[in-house]
Design goal:
Blueprint: H1 3-31, H2 33-45, H3 50-62, H4 69-84, H5 90-95, H6 103-111, H7 115-144, H8 146-168, H9 176-209, H10 216-222, H11 226-231, H12 239-262, H13 267-274, H14 280-295, H15 300-304, H16 311-320, H17 327-388
Length: about 400
């Protein structure tokens, strides 16, 4: 193997380590990163050099007595970025080991006059995000536990009970309802695994698209009211998740904007600073707001009504701006108080989704039980009448 082959192989393994192994190892650190930000805030207040903080924390994480491989890897990545000296901004150095969701707040740190306080705000925001994710998981996961039960019940009926019933039963047993139950169970038995794989892939595709897909169609879908989204949930279940994602991202955005505005930036400068570190979806919205502000600089409500804000938050802005001529102060206020309100709103919506999923899947289970009873009862009646002759 010559040097070029060796370099190519080394580059391949480094890519595997960075793209696949790295995120897996860092997942534990990501889950506890709020505590890291608080520790860093304390270090800044004690006027400890950032490099010293990283080195000393890395020693602790690498020590066999206090070993934490995930934290050690994260600190090592930050230290390498600092030593490399490509960019001395905290957002760049810390960002190499953090999830992309932290980028907006990390940009705010670079411009903040009180970095320790900003890191504490970040820690609080991350814990708020974790609470929201927990609320969503509690709403979605329990109903999904019913799916294996439905699949198992259908498979047993299709492969064990129905073949015997089909051999014994005359055609009149297969009423439209009984036939529908039979067809459903046979479909699950034959294509259930493929259906589950397809569903799983669609969920992955949908999750992947959340920060990447943008445009007027997506914006229109996000603007559909919660009540309408609930009514359309059985035929278009993505409407509510889209609006939840938007509200969740807006809370992070306003927290970041509040810090940037407090540092002395204008609203336009603030948006320009956030655009490079935004997702494709958020970048599209911010560019629309920026274009509107460039055309009509004083029409703030009109600029923010282009699709980024939900109806309730937009109404709050429209109402509050009558009492102040400083829109930036209004954004700062919302950025520091709106997170709790958005969490409560998401919690309310997810509870409704939870109830709808339980009713929907519970109805399928009831449908199968009633179907089994109906087929058995009709078969018994048919055999009894045949025997009576």
């Amino acid at each position: 193997m010559d040097k070029s082959d060796f370099a190519g192989a080394l580059s391949f393994f480094e890519t595997i380590d960075e793209k696949i192994i790295g995120p897996f190892v860092l997942s534990e650190f990501h889950n506890s990163r709020a505590a890291f930000y608080e520790e860093l805030a304390k270090s800044i207040e004690n006027k400890e050099q950032f490099k010293v903080f990283l080195v000393e924390e890395l020693k602790i994480a690498a020590d066999p007595k206090t070993s934490n491989s995930s934290r050690a890897r994260a600190l090592g990545l930050m230290l390498k970025a600092l030593v490399r000296g490509d960019d001395f901004r905290l957002s760049t150095i810390i960002g190499v080991a953090m999830p992309s969701s932290d980028k907006l707040m990390l940009v705010a740190v670079d411009y903040s006059k009180n970095k320790a306080e900003t890191f504490r705000i970040m820690a609080a925001s991350i814990r708020e995000q974790a609470m929201v994710k927990s609320i969503i998981n509690k709403a979605i996961i329990p109903p999904m536990i019913l799916l294996p039960g439905i699949a198992g019940f259908s498979w047993v009926m299709a492969t064990q009970s129905l073949p015997i019933m089909i051999k014994m039963s005359p055609p009149k047993v297969w009423t439209p309802f009984n036939q529908s139950v039979r067809s459903f169970c046979e479909y699950i038995a034959q294509y259930g695994v493929l259906t589950f794989i397809g569903f799983f892939l669609l969920v992955i595709l949908f999750t992947w698209s959340l920060p990447r897909w943008f445009g007027f169609l997506r914006s229109r879908m996000e603007q559909i009211s919660v009540s309408t989204g609930m009514l359309l949930f059985p035929i278009c279940p993505v409407l509510i998740p889209f609006s939840i994602y938007r509200d969740f991202q807006v809370s992070i955005l306003f927290s970041s904007m509040a810090v940037l505005l407090q540092s002395g930036m204008t609203l336009t400068e603030c948006i320009k600073a956030l655009i490079p570190n935004s997702s494709a979806w958020l970048r599209w919205h911010l560019n629309r707001i920026l274009l509107s502000l460039n055309n009509t600089p004083s029409e703030y409500i009109d600029a923010f009504s282009k699709g980024l804000l939900g109806a309730s938050l937009l109404a709050k802005l429209s109402s509050s701006i009558r009492h102040t001529s400083h829109f930036d102060k209004l954004v700062i206020k919302l950025g520091t108080t709106e997170g709790e309100q958005i969490r409560k709103q998401i919690e309310k919506v997810t509870k409704t989704i939870n109830a709808m999923l339980l009713v929907l899947l519970g109805s399928v289970i009831m449908y199968l039980y009633v179907g089994q009873f109906s087929i058995s009862n009709d078969l018994t009646d048919a055999l009894s009448s045949r025997g009576g002759r």
